[in-house]
Write a structure and sequence with these properties.
- The chain is mainly β.
- Helices cover 5% and strands 46% of the residues.
Length: 484
Amino acid sequence: MGIVNYSWDLDGDLTFETYGKVVNWTYLNPGSYTIKLNVTDAAGLYGEDTFAIQVLDATPPVISNISNGTASNNSVSISWDSNELSNSTVRYGKYANISNMSSQSDSTFVLNHTIVLFNLTNDTKYYYMVNSSDPFGNSNNSTIYNFTTTNNTDNDSPIISNAFLDKNTSLNIGNVITVTVNVSDNIGVTRVTADDNNLTRQNATHWKGTVTADATKSVTIYAYDAAGNNNITKLTYTLYIAPYKPPSTGGGGGGGGGTSGEEFENILCSEVDRQFVGVDQEVSYSFEFDCNYVKYINLTGIASSGKIAAKVETLNHTSSLVDIPAPDIVFKNLNVWAGNMGWFSENNVKNPTIMFMVDRTWVTNNDIKLNTITFYSYNDGTANWEKMSTQKISEDSGSYYFKASLPIRGTLGPMAISGGSSSASVHFSPTIKPTITPQSTPEIVPGATPVTWTGIWKEEVPGFQVLMALFVLIVLYVTGRRWN
């Protein structure tokens, strides 16, 4: 059965830009692009393949605004701009001969470039040129400039200003924190660290990097200049501490995230997020653990419920709270909870959804058909697994991402992510000429099935033949009398 449709996603935005067996496309910007081809046959079976291309840039960066700051006895700052992201190199020496020059470089791709030269000789004229190369290897050099060092010793420390963390309250140990620092100096800043991690220069004064939250609840920032002068500042954050809760005496509302009843040995990992739920408030629970394949639970509040916990338990096997496994080939078994028993009801929430991810390797190794991947919820009332409305929303090199609805029936409980094995496959040659292997269709062969015709001599009618014989004799007798 032949292929009837070729659909092409040419820029990785999950939408098809063009259709046809052979297509032409012009890319306006250089870079790496992932191309996806989807083919469909007349029976509606489909298959997909992806491959990466590199659109090259052949134009070198344009360098402008080259300047040097005031030199000290042994250091100076060189700055310039480029019209595209590119790295930074300064070649310098006591003679205007490029082959005899030393160099100082920064591999970070930026638009505003700064290189601080140090360990220079005092009261000496230096020649320099700047160079920037873009990620595709296109390189451009400036003309040669010069500066002269002085006899003045730099004793001024860098000035740290506007240092902040992207998040600083209710963190968990292990959370990644982004640190942003602005640092200035009379000559030039050579290095900035946060908890001994080197930050990356974004321009002449802006530095950025990450640290990991720990029990110290603080980030120590150091800034250094070429003369060895330094400055220090410290930022703090708070860790999340679960409030004390007396044993529950029943009722609905807050809570969640306590003991679920699952067998301890079956829990691979457990993660809790707490959010305030108010009237008509869009609420998003976020999960970060690598072992947790649920990334978000989103809902809209109906009532003012206060701070409500949502908890995801990733399990080793089928939940011990159910008697039957989920359908198809299971990727992950889960328990999902939100609030106390009975809270997850139509009185408190609406439009709940869950976003989860599935490993590409599991899909490939188990020959899973993408459109069969489904989120299941176990219904205690019917003692059955219920299929939730599930749709694929995105993908990357390692995972597929899906969104599914969640049932509103007072509580959540055991869940599962599963999929069915593909019943048809698409094979792609290196030239992207797919061949569909159709499902086999049963062949109907005429057989020797008897067909019964019911006639007047059918034996099943008792005495019929005798009556007919008497009728024939009567007719002959009457005909004979007439002749006589």
